[in-house]
Specification:
Keywords: Signal. Helices cover 60% and strands 8% of the residues. The chain has 125 residues and is mainly alpha-helical. The protein has a two-stranded antiparallel ribbon with strand order 1-2.
Length: 125
C-alpha cells in the first residue's frame, strides 16, 4: 500500500511539474512582452488635433481650436476670410498712399507721363 501511495504521489508530481509551464509564462513570452512595451514607449504619442498653434509675423503665438461641426467650420472660415480681407485692404490703402505721395514726382523732375500707344494692325484688305 505504501508503494501505491508513493507511485500516486510521484504521478501527481510529474503531472504538476509538466503543467507548470502552461500556468506560468515562459521566459520567451516575458521577453516578448518586455520588447513590445519598450517599442510602444518609443512611438510618438497621439496629439489632440483640435488645437492649432499659429505664430504671427510679429512673433506672437496664437492657439486656435480647429472646428468640428459644420457650423463651427463655417464660422472659422468666415473669421479667417475677414482677416485676409482686412490685410488686403490695408495693402491697397498703403499703395494708394504711396501713389499720392509720388504723384508730383514727374512734374518736379520734368518727366513726361508715359502713355501707351495703341497700334492697330491693318488686315491688308
Amino acid at each position: 500500500m505504501k508503494m501505491k501511495s508513493n507511485s500516486k504521489l510521484l504521478l501527481f508530481g510529474v503531472v504538476v511539474a509538466s503543467s507548470l509551464p502552461i500556468f506560468g509564462k515562459s521566459a520567451q513570452a516575458i521577453i516578448n512582452d518586455a520588447r513590445k512595451d519598450y517599442y510602444n514607449s518609443l512611438k510618438p504619442k497621439k496629439v489632440d488635433k483640435t488645437l492649432t498653434v499659429i505664430e504671427n509675423a510679429d512673433g506672437s503665438v496664437e492657439e486656435v481650436y480647429k472646428p468640428r461641426t459644420g457650423l463651427e467650420k463655417l464660422e472659422y472660415n468666415t473669421a479667417r476670410a475677414k482677416d485676409r480681407v482686412d490685410f488686403y485692404q490695408s495693402v491697397v490703402r498703403s499703395v494708394q498712399r504711396e501713389e499720392n505721395e509720388l504723384k508730383g514726382f514727374n512734374d518736379v523732375f520734368g518727366k513726361k507721363k508715359s502713355s501707351r500707344k495703341v497700334i492697330r494692325k491693318s488686315s491688308g484688305k
